[in-house]
Amino acid sequence: MNTNTLPTDELKKYGIINEDLSFSKKLNADDVQNFLQGYTIVADHDKNRATFQLTDNKTKLKVIFLERDKSISDILENSKNNIQYTDVKNVSKSANELSFEKKAFIFDKETEKVVEFDFIKNARELTAIIADKKNTEELNRYIAELLKLKSFLQDKIVQFPEMAKEITNDLNIVSKEFNTVAGISEKQNHSQKQEKSNIQLNVNDPDVYQYANQRRDDEQEHDTEVEKSRKFRR
Predict the structure, then answer these.
(1) Which domain does 78 fall in, by range?
(2) What superkingdom does the record give (predicted)?
(3) Where do the DSSP E strands lie in 21-59?
């Protein structure tokens, strides 16, 4: 492999390549190939995340340090029980106050792997997966997270008017997904109320009471006849 143009010193510094210029064994062949084509390498540890990407014809290494509000080990473990949400902030020296992402971690039972979804980049797919679960509690948790992100973006439009267009695009995506899941939630609530109403109608149905009373009278009459028959046989 030709390493003449690669920023080898930086790659060694972060353990991406070894002293002999071979790539770290932590990276498989596909990871290396993708990295050389401009894709990003992601390294997670506790609450910290670092991303590495080759830029400027592979002559520079772009490094971004991120920080989550939860540790990756907790996220992976708890995702087996329910969807995990986490906020990610860019803590690199070059980061501005707008650098913020919201992620969802979902456990895939078929592959037994945890898959990460971005609220903006994977919005439609994330909404579809959560809606397909048909779990009211999960849906309400997702709605709450969307509202938090929506409020955050609205505040940032005021703080960064020069970036209003970009932020508004993200806000529109979040608003659209919120409207979608809010509509689904409303339908589910209506359906549950309808089911409850039908149960109430069945219980309060006068014909049901009439049938029950008639059956009770018939049973009492039958018991009386049995008792008379016993006395007669004596």
Answers:
(1) 72-196
(2) Bacteria
(3) 41-45, 48-55
Residues forming beta bridges with residue 43, ordered by sequence position: 50
- d(CA 202, CA 197) in angstroms, rounded, equals 9
H helices within the chain, ranges in order? 8-13, 29-36, 72-78, 123-133, 136-159, 164-204, 206-233
For residues 63 and 38, the answer to whether their CB atoms sit within 8 Å is no
Torsional sign, CA 180, 183, 189, 195: negative
User: Over the stretch 173-209, which tens digit does the pLDDT of each residue have?
Assistant: 999 999 999 998 888 766 666 665 555 555 555 554 4
The band of 221, judged by pLDDT with boundaries at 50, 70 and 90, is low
Residue 199, helix vs strand vs coil: helix
On whether residue 201 sits in a domain, the answer given is no
Give how many domains the chain has, as a whole number: 2
Whether 78 and 56 map to the same domain: the answer is no
Domain for residue 219, yes or no? no
Q: What's the residue count for the chain?
A: 234
